[in-house]
């Protein structure tokens, strides 16, 4: 069984996940664009892993968008995305909040019909290792 650790940006919240991930989706839906401020959300999903809050559980809050399946847990202090329990015993884990490496490559891009217009041809723009 795999073990993963993670935390928020300010360090107030820390957690551990025991178990394996079933999928890793890059979601381009409008809800994920709004809640990340980015072109897509990168979330790992598991139907069997268990989440244990190691510290800062009182700093975690969850937003549920009415009449949708969209949930987002985050740190009240710094706003970092954190794991959240989804319907049907599904655990959603924002890939960027993990402190340990996970070997899983993204399974698929989803909700591509909602892709941001500026997301096209990103592989052709200049890349910098640091802020230019």
What does this molecule look like?
The structure is a single chain. With 132 residues, the protein is mainly beta. It has a single domain (3-124), classed as Beta Complex (Metal Binding Protein, Guanine Nucleotide Exchange Factor, Chain A). Helix content is 5%, strand content 38%. The chain has 1 helix and 11 strands; from the N terminus they run E-E-E-H-E-E-E-E-E-E-E-E. The protein has one helix spanning 30-36; strands spanning 3-7, 14-18, 23-27, 41-46, 50-55, 60-64, 71-75, 81-82, 84-86, 90-94, 108-110. The chain has a 5-stranded mixed β-sheet. A 3-stranded antiparallel β-sheet has the order 1-2-5, with no helix packed on it. A hairpin with a 6-residue loop joins strand 6 and strand 7. The longest helix is centred in the N-terminal third of the chain and has 7 residues, at 30-36. The chain is globular and about 40 Å long. The mean pLDDT is 92.
Low-pLDDT runs: none
Q: How many β-strands, per DSSP?
A: 11
Termini separation comes to: 42 Å
Share in helix = under 10%
User: What Rg, in angstroms, do the CA atoms define?
Assistant: 15 Å
How can the largest sheet be summarized? 5 strands, mixed
CATH topology annotation: Metal Binding Protein, Guanine Nucleotide Exchange Factor, Chain A
- How many helical elements? 1
Q: What is the architecture at the second tier of CATH?
A: Beta Complex
> What is the count of distinct domains?
1
Strand order of the largest sheet: 9-10-4-3-11
User: How do the SSEs run, as a string of H and E?
Assistant: EEEHEEEEEEEE
The backbone outline, from C-alpha atoms, is: globular
CATH class: Mainly Beta
Q: Taking all residues together, what is the mean pLDDT?
A: 92
Structural class: mainly beta
- The percentage of residues in β strands lies in 35-45%
